[in-house]
Amino acid sequence: MSRSVDHEIAGLLDAAEDRGSCLAVSEEIPGRLCRALERRAKSGEVTSPARGLFVRTDLWRDLGRDQRTLFTARGLQALHPGWVFCGPTAAVAYGIDVSWSLQSSIHVATTRSGFRGGAGIVRRHAILPEGGGLADVRLEGGLRVTPPERTVYDCLRRTDFPLGLGVADSALRQGVVTEEGLSAFVESVPRDPRGREQALGTLAWADPRSENGGESIARGRMLALGYARPELQVEVPRPADGGTPYRADFAWVRTDGLVILGELDGTDKYLRTEMTHGRTIEEVLSDERERGSRITLYDVSILRFRFELTDDPARFSALLSEYGVPRRGSALAQPDGVRALPDWDALRRST
Known about the structure:
Layout: H1 2-18, E1 23-24, H2 31-43, E2 46-47, E3 53-56, H3 57-62, H4 65-79, E4 84-85, H5 87-93, E5 106-111, E6 118-119, E7 122-128, E8 138-140, E9 143-145, H6 148-158, H7 161-173, H8 179-188, H9 196-203, H10 213-224, E10 231-236, E11 246-253, E12 259-265, H11 268-271, H12 273-276, H13 281-295, E13 301-306, H14 313-322, H15 344-347
Parallel strand pairs: 5-7, 12-13
Antiparallel strand pairs: 1-3, 2-3, 4-5, 6-7, 8-9, 10-11, 11-12
């Protein structure tokens, strides 16, 4: 009997895993298997991220934050086929970068009359029109989700500026929305809903050139502290060998001629396959050292910082000021609307 149960549970978990989903315990699954899954959850063999959902613990540990959100949401979709996901959950389905801190809940859209608050990890939001209005619901990543403009708007109006900037930059970079289309949607929303002005304010600073969510959030925290808008992904020439230019995450050109290059350090660039391009950690570190030495051919300041530092306003501000990053509106900052780039020929150190 035990072997039979083990075999059946393994088959169910395998099938769910193949769908990129947690196993959803529905009425179709015999009670004996449900009880067996509960016992396995207590022993730690499987994990239950939400009521009625199960996934192998070893697999769950290996999943990234976005994958966990999708596994959970797909399991809930199987249990509730009529649900429409919104906000950060829908954004993840669209492939938008979403901060981990915004993925602690699964967000579901509902009508005002159907609103019942939150239960467990599920948070309901009364944003669907009464009497239907589901024609605009999209299918993304195996989930029924709100349209892209609505999805991004809901993220921007419910979170702080730096986290919202991460969503906006990514949505533009991925082509999920356009700046014109998103602006038009936000402008069309009545003035009284909470956060409309915040969404417009965040969108005013959005820039698709930001390479990832970490860089966007870091930039948002710089701006929130009052520092000048940096140029993004600025190319640094390699005249010695004529190779592909290096790129700096951030750059400021002060009115007195000082150039500051900002580099966000983090484990992602050493561990994530899409950023290492198949290189080993040793090769990545070697390339980083060579890159740093080549940049010293130019008369620039190089500011390196880890993402964790940006979460400490006092320390982050002290570091930016120490390196001379100008504040918006100061005599050393470029005027609003002027985006100056370094004059690399003038900055080349004499040898």
